[in-house]
Amino acid sequence: xxxxxxxxxxxxxxxxxxxxxxxxxxxxxxxxxxxxxxxxxxxxxxxxxxxxxxxxxxxxxxxxxxxxxxxxxxxxxxxxxxxxxxxxxxxxxxxxxxxxxxxxxxxxxxxxxxxxxxxxxxxxxxxxxxxxxxxxxxxxxxxxxxxxxxxxxxxxxxxxxxxxxxxxxxxxxxxxxxxxxxxxxxxxxxxxxxxxxxxxxxxxxxxxxxxxxxxxxxxxxxxxxxxxxxxxxxxxxxxxxxxxxxxxxxxxxxxxxxxxxxxxxxxxxxxxxxxxxxxxxxxxxxxxxxxxxxxxxxxxxxxxxxxxxxxxxxxxxxxxxxxxxxxxxxxxxxxxxx
Length: 338
Known about the structure:
Blueprint: H1 2-9, H2 17-32, H3 40-45, H4 50-83, H5 96-124, H6 133-153, H7 160-180, H8 185-202, H9 229-241, H10 258-262, E1 293-295, E2 302-304, E3 329-331, E4 334-336
Antiparallel strand pairs: 1-2, 3-4
Helix pairs in contact: 1-4, 2-4, 4-5, 4-6, 4-9, 5-6, 5-7, 6-7, 6-8, 6-9, 7-8
């Protein structure tokens, strides 16, 4: 997974189908050589030992997550080329590269749906742990990829039969994140990113109108509206293109840019005192100072989820922004609390 992150997701170069093909072959070889009692089918059927089932399901979360990590850039470029007047790097689909890109896009969607199913099994069988980063990442990744698939096919009669199934999978991902969010502020924040997208997809596609928010405050002045499908697609694509960067908000477009002005770079958790006051929009915004918080048992800080990571931090090179007086720091010996 780290190699895929470094050579595919973390690369600033255009997507190289040869690189994707190489990693895809390695993943297929690993999966093909699995013993029968370690396969996903065996775990889903309940054939494996119950004590080992959680571990097997989590292994397949990592496997399916690796497929998504490998193919999502290609999937995004394919979506952009379908919905834009400009040809993407893999358009038109009649070319060999275009057809191969479509294949990898299909792999990405299939892996996301399977991943959402595995995550739901872990939840339904009460196998969730308080802070399992693999599970949290899996639930969010599956939910956002399926959301993009639904948004890209929205309004097509041929897609109606699969619409309810896809929406149910997104809802399950949100449920898992919400449950994990009772113990982890990041999971709660990710659930609050997915929920408005799910709610928007549940409504009929809107026609273009005045430039408003994906979710405006219904009690604010003016006439709130749902986003058009083009706006929703652009928002989801932006979330996927910049998982370590951007403003991470799906609220008022008019408020875009405020958070980057108010917050320092390279952070994930910070205290209220670290942020200057900024004009609110009347409601909490994922990624803002008003957003998800939790108080530590030691009576110390309140952690705030933020999303303004720089793109160059992809590949595990990010360091958590912290304050020495109350957040502690990481060292080779582990986390040290002051």
